[in-house]
Specification:
single chain; 295 residues; alpha/beta; Rossmann fold; 45% helix; binds adenosine monophosphate; binds magnesium ion
């Protein structure tokens, strides 16, 4: 940062001691294994303070999102893409519901990526991703993403190592291309702990209203926890770039994970420096025409 604001939280970000982007960024040498997944990096406050901050910043996010939408509607090319990754139960769905739920759904383009369909599997793995990129003015949200192609694919050995090895560089190049077309990519790893995941899976099993969310395959992935953590570490090492860094959000406290993603989005949108578009409109003339329609 060169504007003299480095180290200072965004204006109005109550409770943050440094910008969320700074507190959560996975820079060179970042070590995922040493992260305390119940910690709240950058935020100095408890759950109640977090809830209050979330509501306050949600209102800011909502205005920024409308500005982005207006920008897109008036010929602007900017958009934002939130990429959400994390182990099962890490809270990706909760972020979509509680963070993106604070803004106008018209401006959000949500896409969840599951096991590729036969048609998708017949294409290059980035094709379905490309097709889902946000249009100008939108906040795109990926619930899982092209990173599955170096996560589950690597751990489960769905393709030979020689094939997934090249994907890290390919993904970096792809994201550079996306950024060059006006999309700010915000990549978030929701890092839940092994213990907390067990508690969440148990809760799903104990609640009939959550059974629809339970996937027996989640236990298989859990059985390869260490390998997944290694695969995530490789993702951070090889794809956290200055232009599209990874943010690692400790996810054992849901309130913090949601607050952190809210703040990351606010900071990303503020970074676009958007203003309300100036529209060439004869306001007085239009008001006169409106008056003329009244009896
Ligand atoms: P969920 O997010 O719970 O709906 O689960 C989606 C599932 O799809 C997860 O088990 C992912 O690992 C899996 N998945 C997503 N992308 C891919 C991919 N490219 N190849 C294989 N499996 C994938
Ligand atoms: Mg699942």
């Amino acid at each position: 940062m060169t504007d003299g604001t480095a180290g200072r939280p965004a204006p109005g970000a109550v409770g943050w001691t440094v910008p969320a982007a700074e507190a959560l960024r996975a820079g060179p040498g970042y070590d995922l294994a040493s992260l305390d997944r119940r910690s709240t990096p950058g935020f100095d406050g408890d759950k109640d303070a977090g809830r209050a901050a979330m509501q306050q910043r949600g209102e800011v996010l909502s205005v920024l999102q409308e500005q982005l939408y207006a920008h897109g509607r008036t010929g602007g090319d900017r958009s934002v893409l939130l990429v959400l990754q994390g182990m099962d139960t890490a809270g990706k769905g909760g972020v979509v519901r509680h963070v993106l739920g604070m803004v106008d759904p018209q401006g959000v383009a949500l896409r969840a990526f599951g096991v590729p369909t036969p048609a998708e599997a017949a294409q290059h793995y980035l094709e379905r991703i490309r097709a889902a990129l946000p249009a100008p003015g939108r906040i795109g949200v990926f619930d899982r993403s092209h990173y599955e192609d170096v996560l589950v694919v690597r751990v489960e050995e769905l393709v030979p190592v020689a094939q997934w090895e090249g994907r890290y560089d390919e993904i970096v190049a792809f994201e550079e291309e996306v950024a060059a077309r006006g999309t700010t990519v915000v990549k978030v790893l929701l890092a839940v702990s092994y213990e907390e995941q067990a508690a969440r899976l148990r809760r799903r099993l104990e609640r009939p209203d959550k059974h629809w969310k339970y996937d027996p395959a989640d236990i298989d992935a859990r059985g390869r926890w260490g390998e997944y953590q290694e695969a995530y570490q490789a993702v951070l090492d090889r794809t956290s770039t200055p232009g599209a860094p990874w943010y690692v959000v400790p996810a054992d406290r849901k309130w913090f994970a949601r607050l952190a993603v809210t703040e990351l989005l606010v900071e990303a949108l503020e970074g676009l420096g958007l203003t309300w578009p100036e529209v060439d409109l004869d306001v007085a003339g239009e008001l006169a025409r409106l008056e003329a329609t009244l009896p």
